[in-house]
Amino acid sequence: MKIKITQTQVQNITKLGLFICVIALIVQLFPSKSKFKYQFEVGKPWSYELITASFDFPIYKSDLQITKEKEEILKDFTPYFKLDSTKCNLQINKLFTDWKKKTGQFPISQNYIKRKFQSIYAVGIISVADYNKLLEDKRENISCITPSRVSNTLAVQNVYTPKTAYEEILRAAPEAIKSYDLNVYLVENLKYDSATTELSKTDLLKNLSLTSGMVQTGQRIIDRGEIITPANYLELSSLKIEYEKRKGAIQQSAIVVVGEIIMISGIICLFFSYIYLFRPRIYNKFGDLLFLSLLIVMIVGLTAFSLQYDTLSYYMVPFALIPIIIRVFFDPRTALFAHICTMLIISFMVDNSFQFILLQVTIGMAAVSSLKDMTQRSQLAQTALYIFLCYCIMYLAFQLISEGNIERINWQPILYFSISSACLLFAYVLIYIFEKMFSLISSVTLVELTNINSDLMMKFAEVAPGTFQHTLQVSNLATEAAKKINANSLLVRTGALYHDIGKMKHPEFFTENQMGGKNPLTDMDYEEAAKIVISHVTDGIEIAKKSHLPEQIINFIGTHHGFGKAKFFYTSFINAYPDKTPNDAAFTYPGPLPNNKETAILMMADAVEARSRSLGVYTEESINEMVESMINSQIADGQFKDAPITFRDVETVKSVFKEKIKNIYHTRIAYPEANKVAP
After folding, report:
1. Which domains does the chain have, with CATH numbers?
2. Which residue from 189, 306, 586, 618 has the highest number of Cβ atoms inside 10 Å of its Cβ?
3. How much is the pLDDT for 376?
4. What stretch of H or E contains 154?
5. In the structure, what pLDDT confidence band is assigned to residue 25 with cuts at 50, 70 and 90?
6. What distance in Å separates the CA atoms of residue 384 and residue 19, rounded to the nearest whole number?
7. What are 125's strand-pairing partners?
8. Is the pLDDT at 674 greater than 70, yes or no?
C-alpha cells in the first residue's frame, strides 16, 4: 500500500524540521560554562536577595593579599648563579698567545696578570644586565653554585662586572701592562641559573595557603541593601569560583540539556504559534519563516560569541536589529513579539537578567515606535539615536534605584550602548541582503520603484502614454483607498504603477493609446482580439521579470484582472453569434485572483478608473452608479474570495473612489466669449 503525501503535509513537515533546527542551534549556542549571575563591587549595596551558602567552600585570599605574602616570603630570597671555573685559564692562555703573536714575546708581569685573573674569576664576573637587575630587586646576596655542586652565599657588592674587574687589575698594576687591552679577556663566568632559581622559589611558596577560612553550609553571606565590605567581597568571590567550578563539571549533564531544550522549545513554540494564529501569510510562506528564524539565531549567536571573551560585553550586541529589520518587512506587532521571545532566551545566558530584560523590551518598543516606515536612510540614524537615548535613560534610572547614589553608578555600559547603537547603522546593508536572499521587499525599495523618472517608467510613458496616464490615475485612487482601510498604501501605489506595463509590447491595440484613430482590433476575430488584450498580463509579467522587479510587484500584474473576462469581446461574440456557445477559456484572463488587500484594491481601482473614462455624463448619480456596478460585479464573479478584505473595507473603498472621481470630473465654469466690436 503506497502512502500518498500531499503538498500541505510536505510543507508542514518542512516547518516542523525548521522548528527543531532552530531549537537545536540555540541549545548548541548556549554557553558551555555556567556563569555566576550576580554582580558585586566593594562599597556598593547588594541589590539581590539574601544569599546563604548552599555548600561548604573555602574563602580564597585576594590577589593583592597573595602577592603581599609572596613578597614577604621571597624578601630574603637569593637567586642562583653558576660559576664556570674553566674560563680563567682559557682567558689567560688566550691573552699570552695573542700577545706573543703580536710582539714576539710574552707580556711583562705574567705572574701579576695570572694572580689577578685567578682572584677575580674565583669570585666571579657577571653581566652588567644581571648586576643591574640584582640592584633593582634590592638583592644583597646571591647563591653561587660551584662546579662541585656546592652552593655558597656571595655578597652582590663583591661580585665583579667586566668593567669593575678591569679597574681592579689596573689599580695596582705595573705601568707597562696598562697597554695590554686586558678588558678584552675579562668575560662573564658567573651566569644566572633560571631553572634552579624558579625551583627554589616554588619550593619556598608551596606552603603558601591560598585560602583563609571556610564558609559552612547554611551560613549567611549577605542580604539585600547591605554595603559590600572587603570581607563580604572575598566570600562572594569565593562562592563565585566554587559555583562555576561545580556548574562547569555538570554543564553537559543530561538533566541540564533537557532543561535548556524545554525552555527554548517553549519560547520558540510560542513564537511559531503567534505566527500561525495571527500572521497566516507569514506562516504559509516558508521563506518568511526561515528569515525570522535565521534572524533570531543570528542574534543569539552574537550574544554567545560575546560571552566567550571577557574583553567583550553582551551589551555591545545590536539587539535592536530584530525589531528594526522585521518592522521594515512586516508589521510592528510581529517585530516586537520576535524581539521579546529572543530576549527571553538570551536572558538565561547573561547575568542580571532583570536589568537585561527591562532594557531590551524598552529599546524594542522604541525601535518599533520610531520606525513606522523606513523610506529614507536618515530614519535609521534617527532610530539608532532614539535607541541609544532610551538605553541610557533606562539604565541610569535602574542604577539610581539600585545604587541610591549617583557616585556609585558604573558608567562603562554607556560606551557599550553607543557601540550597539552605532552597529544598527549597518541594518541598511542587512536589509538589502535579506531582500535578495528571501525575496522580501522594503519601503526603501518601494520608494525607489515609484520613481517615474526611472528608465522603465520613462520608456513606459514614451511607448504607451495613454496607458501611463491611466496607471497614474489608478495609483492615486488605490493609494487613497489603501490609507482608509489600513492597507500598505506604498505597496499598492507601486503595484498600480506597474500593473499595465505589458501594454508596452503592443500599445497600438489599446484605446487609450490610439489618439482617436481606428482600433485595429475591430478588424479581427473576437477570440483573436481577446487573446491580444489578455496577453498584456503575461507580457507584463515577462517584462517585469526581465527588469528584475520584486515578486510582490509582479503579483499585482498577474492579479489585477483575476479570472475575469475580456467582457467587450465576450459580449460582442454572444451578440454576434447567439446560436454558438463561446469558448470561455479564450476570453478569460489567466489570473490568479487577488490574494491580499492591496491587490484587491488595485483590481477595483483599475476597473473603476477605466470605466469612468467612458461615462457619457459625469454627475453624482452616474459616478455612484458606475462605482457600485463595477465593484459589485467583481464581487459577484468571486474575484475577492481569496483576499482578506471585508465588506466594510469594500464600502470604504467605494466611497473613496466616488469622491476622488467626482473631484477629477467636477463641473467647470463655462467662460463667455467676448462680443465682436463693430468697426
Report:
1. 7-30+253-438 (no CATH), 72-205 (no CATH), 443-664 (1.10.3210)
2. 189
3. 73
4. strand 151-155
5. very high
6. 31
7. 160
8. no
**Residue 130 amino acid letter:** D
Average pLDDT of span 362-377: 84
- CA-to-CA separations, 441 to 153, 374, 650, in angstroms, rounded: 83, 12, 26
Three-state secondary structure readout of 446-473: HHHHCCCCCHHHHHHHHHCHHHHHHHHH
Q: β-pairing, 80-83 with 190-192?
A: antiparallel
Give the N- to C-terminal CA distance of the chain in Å, as an integer.
Answer: 106
Is the CB of residue 560 less than 8 Å from the CB of residue 499? yes
pTM: 0.69
User: Whose CA is closest to 493, among 540, 443, 445, 450?
Assistant: 450
Q: Is 152 helix (H, G, I), strand (E, B) or coil?
A: strand
The C-alpha angle 365, 366, 371, rounded to 5 degrees, equals 105
The closest alpha carbon to 118, from 192, 180, 185, belongs to 185
Q: Are 147 and 113 in contact (CB under 8 A)?
A: no
Residue written as grid cell 616554588: 202
Burial class (CB in 10 A: 0-12, 13-18, 19+), 103: exposed
Cα 237 from Cα 87, distance rounded (Å)? 55
Secondary structure (H, E, C), 216-255:
CCCCEEECCCCECCHHHHHHHHHHHHHHHHHHHHHCCCHH
Mean pLDDT of the residues in the chain:
88
Q: What is the rounded distance in angstroms from the CA atom of residue 460 to the CA atom of residue 462?
A: 5
Separation of alpha carbons 30 and 260, rounded Å: 9
Contacts for 97 with CB less than 8 Å, ≥ 6 apart? none
Dist. CA 649–CA 392, nearest whole Å: 43
